[in-house]
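Dear colleague,

Following up on yesterday's call, I've attached the two folding results inline so they're easy to grep. Please treat them as preliminary; we haven't cross-checked anything against experimental data yet. The first protein's sequence and structure tokens come first.
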Amino acid sequence: MDLSLAGKVAIVGGASQGIGYAIAHLLAAEGAAVAMVARRTEALDAAVRRVGEETGSMALAVPADIRKAADCTRIVETAVAALGRLDILVNNDGAPPLGELDTFDDAAWDKAVQQNLMSVVRLSRLALPHMQSAGAGRIVNITALSALQPIARFGLSVATWAAVLGYAKTLSLEVAARRITINTVCPGRIATGRLAKVFGNAAAGAADDAVLMDGIVKDIPMQRVGTPAEIAGLVAFLASRHAAYITGSVFHVDGGRRASLI
């Protein structure tokens, strides 16, 4: 399927590794120029080199902390100045720490809100005028299945990503007539460093710890964890012309784990 992304420009957050890297790589492979954002400069530079070498598309490193308003402004301004336009924004980052909700003080809550919610609000607000100038646009938010199916100790993520769902749905209604779509992807258990952090170091690779992996996949109907490439495939589709009539939607990509009719 031709996704018709040649000539498009994308900003992808959390792009030095994991899901963000997979998304940036696939968008570049489909012909888009990609501004890749992450906090760690060395890892980001290496990721940008790989994407450029392996896809032949333009990849731009934008080291930034999306928790900071000034950095959000710089991300969009840098991408547009260097690449000439903006068509696609993928809001993606890590996640706040785990823990019981009554143990988090105001500072922890503020950091979670800045990371998960306000980064989406700011980057989307900054991106919209450029997308309108381009005649269309795509915003895709990456959250997690826990935003739909809460898990104990994930409360900072659950609360702030649930807010993203409400924000994205409302924004989708307000900008639909401008041919700008807003959709949200909620990955389940995906083989990334985050999975290793939550379940143990063997979780991301897992081949050397069958017992641990059995515990992780026991409630996944497909009996395996997903891959970053499987999330990237959906994001690339949502960023394409084929998804022009899809907006305000939430997609759980979880191997069938969400036990719900909707």
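Below is the second protein, in the same order (sequence, then structure):
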Amino acid sequence: MFSSRFHWDLQRNRLTELLAAKRVQGARILDLTQSNPTRAGLEYPEQLRRVFHDPAVLRYDPLPAGSLEAREAVADYYRQRGQAVEPGRILLTASTSEAYSYLFKLLADPGDQVLVPRPSYPLFEYLAKMESLEVRQYPLEYHAGWAIDMDALASAITARTRAVVLVNPNNPTGSYVKRTELEALMRIAAGHGVALISDEVFSDYAFAADSARVASLAGVEECAAFSMSGLSKIAGLPQMKLGWIVVAGSPRQRAEAMEKLEWIADTYLSVSTPVQCAAARLLEHGAAVQRQIQQRTAANLAFARQAFAGTALEILAVEGGWSITIRVPRVRTEEEWCLDLLERDNLLVQPGYFYDFESEAFLVASLLTAPEEFQEGLKRIVEQTSRLL
């Protein structure tokens, strides 16, 4: 009686089962998978408590693209980063996940395909299947740094491909799209009549400047392109539920895409009035949270590099984001690494196969973790590695 969209195995995996058992036992778990900034021990400005003290929150104006005031606040966010984005090219959503849903509805019919990076965050298959779409993967290659395999990407395109998804920077590899890669991507997209979808939620979290990388696809004109971001990551405010899509491409493509996106958004009208009224102040006060996250992720990365120096552990090159990928000795599987760390050391990390790494053995840890927990967790990884070798 239920839709065929729900074809996933809902059984808990061994790591989840062990974690649940540990918590029942009352074990104190060092969680190096933390991705929720509101639970990471950050200080949130007191002003955030007062941003909804506005009489306008009691008036409902159902505008499909979102209020002009909120879209101007988003445009100002891009302006501060040197990018000219008119409010008329911005459409508000309740989240980046909803933005994906809108874009998949805009670009594809049931049975069509979207290309997504591998390795990357394990969300695309779920989002695509909810729209009755097929996911095909294109590889990111690692040779002292990450790069898109353009030949493999081009070969993966079929007559039913409608979009290429980029995560910029990618999660968990922390790799940005480079300018040379974008030039090739635009040629491929224009030549095949497909769109580029760029997930840029971690774009503000670079560890160093690099003129070779692309911060956003918001200025692309050579092909249809859509940039997405939101308060969840850039301001550390996932609870506020505000994301957006910036429409790029030729003037004709932009106009047609915005018209159709507004039709889709008008069907749902999901973005709340209070968060739209507060958007400018949320971005303003959220900047203080962003700075804390930038400082923490940079400090944790520096500690990790120092902690692993001279050991059999290696951090793969990372340019930005909230995660690191740790190459561990292949003396056992990733699952065995994670299960043993949890069983013996009460330490939770994620295996690389959660993110579709093509080979073993990798562990993924969050740089958002509170420093004292992060440092102790890495020490336990080093100690267990020493015991094994």
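For the second protein, one point worth flagging: Residues 14-43+285-388 form a domain with the Aspartate Aminotransferase, domain 1 fold (CATH 3.90.1150.10).

Best wishes,
A.L.
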